[in-house]
Amino acid sequence: DAKTTQPNSMESNEEEPVHLPCNHSTISGTDYIHWYRQLPSQGPEYVIHGLTSNVNNRMASLAIAEDRKSSTLILHRATLRDAAVYYCILRGVNDYKLSFGAGTTVTVRA
Amino acid sequence: SAVISQKPSRDICQRGTSLTIQCQVDSQVTMMFWYRQQPGQSLTLIATANQGSEATYESGFVIDKFPISRPNLTFSTLTVSNMSPEDSSIYLCSVWPRDNTEAFFGQGTRLTVV
Predict the structure, then answer these.
(1) Average pLDDT per consecutive 10 residues, chain B (114 residues; last block may be shorter)
(2) Residue B15, SS3?
(3) How many CB atoms are closer than 10 A to CB B46?
(4) How far is A32 from chain B (nearest CA, A)?
(5) Chain B window 18-37: which residues touch A at a Cβ cutoff of 8 Å?
(6) Do B45 and A45 touch (CB under 8 A)?
(7) pLDDT, tens digit (0-9, with 9 covering 90-100), for A59-68
(8) Do B43 and A44 touch (CB under 8 A)?
(9) Are B11 and B19 in contact (CB under 8 A)?
(10) Shortest alpha-carbon distance between residue A18 and chain B (Å)
(11) Which residue of A lies nearest to B1 if distances are taken between CA atoms?
């Protein structure tokens, strides 16, 4: 499985943007980049995914490097509810099994 | 989308006993998975629950320890057998509905073995 590397933790102030980096230098041409987050005492939830182009949804934006070897999840205005562990995961086009790394623990200060 | 109900939400069990965890989905799904999350750790895939056939286990997990049933497309059970304190974890059910771009997870079952 292609691996991802994320910082262990990041801190942010409420109402400020959060940029979460993810390195995936061994990504293959057909791997999707998925982001999930796990709020305290809950199962993971989907955040966003992309293949080559940058993506936006109501939760976040995903910026993908041109060579696809890295990506950044952007939370535009962090709230206390965004405090969670964020996982960057590579998924093959016909692979529905998710391989979770250690993720990045995001702390949001009021 | 899919809504997953897991039961029980938590349990405290004696070592040497077994616990069966149920996963109920509000729609028919082909892809269903069981994960384990040990204290302070990330999620690890245990197995794929296949409807009508034996589950497919990941390396390090065996059927005798984690038997799985999948009688239909909306329901599955995971049994943790002959438990030891090392089995204390959160066990999560996950599904990937057809034509969806995301997986859905249950809230998890927090198991403590004493």
Answers:
(1) 95 98 96 97 97 94 98 97 98 92 96 98
(2) coil
(3) 24
(4) 10
(5) 31, 33, 35
(6) no
(7) 999 999 999 9
(8) yes
(9) yes
(10) 22
(11) A46
Strand order in the sheet with A9-13: A9-13, A104-109, A84-91, A32-38, A45-50
Per-residue pLDDT of A76-97, as tens digits, reads: 999 999 999 999 999 998 889 9
**A17: amino acid identity, one letter:** P
* Residue of B34, B9, B24 whose CA lies nearest to B111: B9
Q: Which of residues 62-91 of A touch B (CB under 8 A)?
A: 85, 87
Q: Give ∠ CA A23-A28-A33 in degrees, rounded to 5.
A: 50
Predicted confidence at residue B100, as pLDDT, reads 82
User: What end-to-end distance do the CA atoms of chain A give, in Å?
Assistant: 38
Query: What CA–CA distances, in Å, run from B3 to B9, B91, B95?
Result: 15, 17, 9
**Cα angle A41, B8, B37; round to 5:** 45
Which residue in the block uniquely carries the two structure tokens 């109402």? Answer: A15
Place of tokens 């400020």: A16
Per-residue pLDDT of A8-37, as tens digits, reads 999 999 999 999 999 999 999 899 999 999
C-beta separation of A28 from A46 below 8 A: no
- CA dihedral (B63, B68, B70, B71) in degrees, to 10, reads 90
Please give the C-alpha separations between residue B16 and each of B13, B62, B77, B109, in angstroms, as whole numbers: 9, 17, 19, 18
